[in-house]
Specification:
The chain is mainly beta.
Length: 269
């Protein structure tokens, strides 16, 4: 199941799951969430075979979203978040957000289990999203984020694994309306440090993902829309608990889409 934030992958393919606590966006800055099932996930390319969840935040160029939120609940739950949008002149727009949360999830009634093996969830994150209008039909969008979260995971053997995730990410997207169609070039890098304690043994993973993609969306006549694109992806992570090795892959992929509006009420993609 591929999970994206504004088209940037947050799904951890080397683990095979999404660590939701590491997502650096606040609830108040989410504009919509797209859920794609079935063969339509082919439009999203790599890692999308099980479906897609695409989280889309407000665009600071068009949306003026600012808020301060505090939440509290039982079991020591507390959360605060800040979202602020601003503009500098007519060509630069930005949105900054940050948040923190914690809760008391565990009550330890078993003296045989150390408290350090069952740490309570906590999270701190920050995100910056900027849009710069370079020309009348060309814009540059820069996104950067950081998160630091801790959770306790229950393993298949019934033991507890305290885990700390530290993530940072940066993405640049250059989009332009040209005579050849809508052209978009994007590149991003995700860095993740994951520290686990498995059966009292500290284990650390350092993962880096780099992605560069280029696509062109254009029309031929009034009824035919095409999209062609290419993507390069590099992913590497160290081996643990047996240290010294590295697992990595490089992928070069091509994609194409053809949408045909057969009639006013019937189309095929």
């Amino acid at each position: 199941l591929l999970v994206l934030v504004n088209g940037r992958q947050v799904y951890l393919d080397h683990y095979g799951y999404t660590a939701w606590a590491t997502l650096p966006v606040q609830l108040e800055e989410i504009r919509q969430i797209e859920v794609v099932k079935g063969p339509n996930s082919a439009l999203f390319g790599f890692n999308a075979v099980g479906g897609v969840v695409n989280i889309i935040t407000y665009n600071p160029k068009f949306d003026d979203e600012s808020s301060v939120t505090a939440r509290a609940g039982t079991h020591g739950f507390g959360e605060v978040s800040l979202v602020h949008s601003f503009k500098l002149g007519e060509k630069f727009s930005a949105r900054f957000s940050a948040g923190a949360s914690q809760e008391n999830e565990w009550k330890n009634d078993n003296p045989l289990i150390s408290n350090r093996l069952r740490q309570d969830p906590a999270r701190v994150s920050a995100n910056l999203d900027t849009v710069t209008q370079l020309a009348e039909k060309t814009e540059l969008r820069l996104e950067g984020s950081w998160s630091n979260s801790q959770v306790t995971e229950l393993l298949l053997n019934g033991s507890y694994s305290p885990t700390k995730y530290v993530t940072d990410s940066i993405k640049a997207t250059l989009a332009s309306e040209t005579r050849f169609g809508s052209v978009q070039l994007s590149a991003y890098q995700n860095d993740l440090t994951a520290k686990h304690i498995v059966v009292s043994t500290p284990t650390r993973f350092d993962n880096t993902v780099r992605v560069v993609s280029l696509q062109d969306l254009f029309k031929v006549g009034a009824k035919h829309t095409f999209r062609i694109g290419g993507e390069y992806r590099h992913n590497k992570v160290n081996t643990a608990p047996i240290a010294g090795g590295e697992v990595a892959y490089d992928v070069l992929a091509a994609s194409a889409m053809w949408n045909w509006a057969v009639t006013d009420k019937l189309s095929t993609t």
